[in-house]
């Protein structure tokens, strides 16, 4: 259904699609309130549950964002992107978008919001969220689309914690014959690529930076911005870079994840933190692509850390024996040991 068609399916809210101004007087269930509009819960006449986004103001800027979201979502199909069912016609005084309803809140809700509970979101689930979000963003980038507002509030979860990335009002179709697009900085504080904010040059690496912040949120359970923190740590990205650089990752990680008690979790979190560190580089050229980030996350998710730990322990025992041996190590033996330790260091505690 395109912009010029009336949403013939209809939806049973306490306000009518024919009189959109009654939204303000309705008792419709409000799901969330964002920077560009309020999202309500509804039910289509065929019984499907939906989320209805009502944009705040019917002005040129809002119409542009409305059309942008419709244009992008109608051309995309991915299991980790929210589906657009339809939209209201030009004859309506309001701008309404009708999406599939995702019932389990946002990642932000579960990390540091109303649904946050210690231990309720174990690290394997967080890894799954990271991989599925990365998959959605990699798909967008291969489709020449930049999301521009990647954040945990825009990552929805169903009852099985399946990810649905949402909110494409700021997204930009990226021309295939240029390296960047110059545009005024937009996005959410704490997630905005600092180089983009400085140079006004939008690239897919801007999404990579924002995703790096999401990864840090997943391992820390902290919000991207918190004015109650020390002034140098108000932005989570700044705090994370400092902690990782100074080998203080344990001060950043959510204690409920088992970082200090579970070697596998500790090594997985360390690898995720190192990947996030790459994503958060100031120079966009130093950041990996989303495709590379996704592959790295999948490797971390499926890596056998226990096997790696056994290998490093065997190598360490051999070193003890060699130290007790009066015969000195040959240069080749020493080289082999250095290669062995460097390739398996992530598998040890």
TrEMBL record:
Superkingdom of the source species: Eukaryota
Residue intervals of the Protein kinase domain: 25-305
Membrane topology classification: Single-pass membrane protein
GO MF terms, alphabetically ordered: ATP binding; protein serine/threonine kinase activity
GO cellular component, one term: plasma membrane
SUPFAM superfamilies on file: Protein kinase-like (PK-like) (SSF56112)
PANTHER family per record: LEAF RUST 10 DISEASE-RESISTANCE LOCUS RECEPTOR-LIKE PROTEIN KINASE-LIKE 1.4, PROTEIN KINASE DOMAIN-CONTAINING PROTEIN
Protein known as: Protein kinase domain-containing protein
